[in-house]
Amino acid sequence: MTLPSLKIGDLTATMPVVQGGMGVGISLSGLASAVANEGGIGVIAGAMIGLLDKDVTKDPLAANMRALRREIQKAREKTSGIIGVNIMVALTHFTQLVRTAIESRADIIFSGAGLPTDLPKHLHEACEQKKEDFKTKLVPIISSARAASIIARKWMRNFNYVPDAFVVEGPKAGGHLGFKEDELTDASFALENLVPPIVDVARELEDKCGRAVPVIAGGGVFTGADIRRLLNLGASGVQMATRFVATEECDADIRFKQAYVNARPEDVTIIHSPVGMPGRAIDNSFIEASRKGLKKPFRCIYHCVKTCNREKTPYCIALALLSAMRGNLKAGFAFCGTNVGRITSITTVHEVMESLRREYEESAPKQA
User: Fold this and answer.
1) pLDDT along the chain (368 residues), means of 10
2) Is 108 helix (H, G, I), strand (E, B) or coil?
3) Sign (positive/negative) of CA torsion 35, 33, 176, 137?
4) Is 331 a member of any domain?
5) Are residues 58 and 161 in the same domain?
6) Nearest-CA neighbor of 191 among 152, 240, 149, 155?
7) Is the residue at 76 inside a domain?
8) Per-residue pLDDT, 226
9) What is the DSSP code (8-state) at residue 342?
10) Do both 128 and 192 map to the same domain?
11) Residue 86 vs residues 339, 346, 358: alpha-carbon distances, Å
12) What DSSP designation does 347 have?
């Protein structure tokens, strides 16, 4: 049995795999277009994407918008596949980046790190003000059925809009996590327990609006067998990120990728991010110094995240992640998923996708 396709509205991904957005600068046009060319959904991370722009210190907002527009265009030049953008609700310039993604004709906006309760407003306003019928799909990233219900209710009441899909991220995901720290090891919050009730919410919406509302499951998804297990629970697709980092097409420096290859399971740690959320990362000297309180407050010129307390935070997470992306892991750290210790070499996106197909087929129940 081969992998099924994933349909989100009028978009069809021949592989039911969404490459999770990874910032700062880990998933840009290079990785996103490679995934899209393999039939998956490639995702550009919008978080402080302007740090890669030489004029970012002059005008961070303009740099972010310019860089996002540029990366979407570059991806379009490399693929005719599906290109999405991940834009965190917590970003200070969330609204402007959403408008930029819509007007740059991103196929999908994935949005988490907060509840994107007004996301459809920006799509409606873009269509009205530009006198164009933008087709960007809007997909909230959530961690509970309650959050899915709240978003759906607000979108339908305020904008007459039903989410085009949901991404549910479980506690084994990398980066910032939508859970309290004690919930990360609580079995009741395992992805397998989160998916069915969210699928129930999606099915109720389908009955009301007359179209499919697929659920995409992410966080700790690593193999084709994982994909089969989650599809059997009612998910229509999966989101994967960690496995795509150690690929030739990933936009990060080779030293960042090598940190993934070298990581052991015991190297994975939970940090207390300046953003105010727990995060999963590869432990290193930078994190250890922060843990000991050795990092000093800094002068922030970006204020990229609304929830960041610039007066008290021990370091700038945007600059730390940018340093790591560029290979300087002494000045930053690498976010990762719980399965990073299973990565043993640098490969290609094509080889990852072929492996997922093979693993999926091999995991099929044996017929008597």
Assistant:
1) 94 98 96 99 95 87 95 98 96 94 98 95 95 97 97 98 98 93 91 98 96 98 98 98 98 98 97 88 94 68 70 82 96 96 98 98 85
2) strand
3) negative
4) no
5) yes
6) 240
7) yes
8) 98
9) G
10) yes
11) 22, 24, 28
12) B
Q: How many domains does the chain have?
A: 2
Quick one: which of 201, 195, 232, 197 has its CA closest to 216? 195
Q: Kindly report each contact of residues 274-277 with a partner whose C-beta sits within 8 Å and lies 24 or more positions away, as own/partner.
A: 274/305, 274/308, 274/309, 274/313, 274/314, 274/315, 274/316, 274/317, 275/90, 275/113, 275/176, 275/305, 275/307, 275/308, 275/317, 276/307, 276/308, 276/309, 277/113, 277/176, 277/177, 277/178, 277/307
Residue identified by tokens 């509205």 is 9
User: Token pair for residue 116?
Assistant: 């994107």
Across the chain, where does the E strand assignment appear? 6-8, 11-13, 17-19, 41-45, 82-86, 108-111, 137-142, 166-169, 175-176, 215-218, 237-240, 268-272, 278-282
CATH number of the domain where residue 20 is located: 3.20.20.70
Joined together, the tokens standing for residue 188 give 């009741």
Shared domain for 304 and 162, answered yes or no, is no
Query: What are the backbone dihedrals phi and psi of residue 305, each rounded to the nearest 5 degrees, phi first?
Result: -120, 130
Question: Exposed (0-12), middle (13-18) or buried (19+): which is 266, by Cβ within 10 Å?
Answer: exposed
**pLDDT score at 277:** 86
Between CA 76 and CA 297 the distance in angstroms is 40
pLDDT in the model for residue 301: 64
Q: Which of 97, 173, 106, 186 is nearest to 141 (CA)?
A: 173
Note down the domain range covering 282. Answer: 255-325
**pTM (whole model) above 0.90:** yes
Residue 279 lies in a domain: yes
pLDDT at 1: 72
Are 170 and 224 in the same domain?
yes
Place of tokens 């730390």: 320
